[in-house]
DNA sequence: GTAGGTGCAAAGTATTTGCATATAT
DNA sequence: ATATATGCAAATACTTTGCACCTAC
């Protein structure tokens, strides 16, 4: 129907699979939480020595457009994480600065809920701040 | 006790009161929600024609250090809002892009609550996404 | 073989800083 | 009078883009 091996909209071809892309995608897949760009670059370079920063940015944009990852902004820092991990939120440790993924959700707001003033809620995002297990134990 | 008109730590003097600072502080005080820097500049220029962008940034930093305002990062954009408005959250309209302050809080997490995994929660931040009253009415 | 991808370096944004002038105290 | 603040322009930091070479298909 579309001529190629998989169907992409007319005049558009499927992105090619390259070592750089595969590694960057996997780095995010196995990450313990959302990662910053320099961190992604470092982890990628461990497996693909010469990768350039531009490729990381280009790939992050590509993966974001595809929907397989998405950016999270936390305290002014832009982090990226793999999508499709289900509904979750983030915990930012005020002691060590690391960000963790939490699958517990402290909020229950069905889509369509109307807030005082007439705000129709479609989605929510929660960030918790405090001490991560390591830092809490160390305190 | 400290020699000056107000007490500041030794070797530090009180910031001076200037037209620029007063106006920038007031702009944030009367704002309907957190504002982006270009927006702050525009609103300030309406009252102090020649203000420079650098002064806006310097003043935002000063006010932040003083604690009278604080930055909020929302979808990669850095916004500033006056502090001391009590516990509140933000609503970001997915249609018009405006950000509003909401005083309703959908979360109840007493400080010290421990989340699964051992995360000790000290604070939380919530952002709701959806249609603002204007856009909901227009839909 | 060819379209698409990569690395490098140059170009854009956003924010910060240096310096001469202006201003609050 | 003098230290501090301002405005402009240069400097920084982060991200995007142009281009010649390389690689997946």
Automatic annotation (TrEMBL), chains A, B:
Keywords: DNA-binding, Repressor, Transcription, Transcription regulation, Zinc. Belongs to the Fur family. This is Transcriptional repressor. InterPro entries: FUR, Fur_C, WH-like_DNA-bd_sf, WH_DNA-bd_sf. Signal peptide: none annotated. It comes from the Bacteria. PANTHER family: HYDROGEN PEROXIDE SENSITIVE REPRESSOR (PTHR33202:SF22), ZINC UPTAKE REGULATION PROTEIN (PTHR33202).
